[in-house]
Amino acid sequence: MLEYSQNIPQKQPSKLVNCLTTTATYFPNSLFDNMGRIPFNAVTNYRSLPPTNEKQLRDTFQKYDSNGDGLLSKAELENAFKSLGSRMPNWRARRALNHADANGDKFISLEELDEVVKYAAKHGYVLGK
Questions:
Q1: Which InterPro entries match (predicted)?
Q2: Where are the beta strands (DSSP E) in 1-129?
């Protein structure tokens, strides 16, 4: 179980917590037990917050370039959309690829990534839009 530390005020357990990953994760009060602890299984199944701006969204897509070639395949786009909470990541990846693949090579290059980011932001994958 996770215990409170001096960085997590006991009176405000639902604050943004950055103690488990490099991405801040929101823990609602319902996850905490009566002693102010979060059971480990509750944390491991919890999703991080979606990106709040287009730069974070771009970084999310770049993170899914699994082979490091600077190109995003349909499978890599699908994994990225799945991580962003898409209920139909395969369909969303195909649509993004059709929308942004200017040269028709079936991959998204760094130059084409801006169009994917705009597409994803337009369809609600950024908070505050």
A1: EF-hand-dom_pair, EF_Hand_1_Ca_BS, EF_hand_dom, EF_hand_pair_protein_CML-like
A2: 16-17, 25-26
Check residue 78 and give its pLDDT.
96
Pairing, β 25-26 against β 16-17: antiparallel
Q: What is the structure's pLDDT at 30? A: 62
Give the pLDDT band (50/70/90) at residue 1.
very low
Q: Of 62, 53, 64, 52, which is closest to residue 16 (Cα–Cα)?
A: 52
User: Which three-class secondary structure state does DSSP give residue 109?
Assistant: coil
Strand partners, 72: 108
Q: Which residue has the tokens 């905490």?
A: 32
Between CA 36 and CA 1 the distance in angstroms is 10
What's residue 3's pLDDT?
47
